[in-house]
Amino acid sequence: MVSLAFLLHIALQPGVDPNNFNNYLMLGYFVMAVIGLVYIVSLALRQRNLQQDLQLMERLLQDDEENGD
Length: 69
Fold this sequence. Notes:
The chain is mainly α. The protein contains two helices and no strands. The chain has one domain (2-68). The chain has helices at 2-11, 18-68.
């Protein structure tokens, strides 16, 4: 809430250039998009690693069953 009040204070000042304010807005959108993209890539890598771990566990279980008989 404080940040919204701060942004409104900056935006409503008579000497503030609206284009400069829009640049900060676009920078904020860009930063949020990068954060979202990094999060999605992180989830994809975790999913891939989990799939590899699952395949390894299945192979180990099959090897254990074959050697146990």
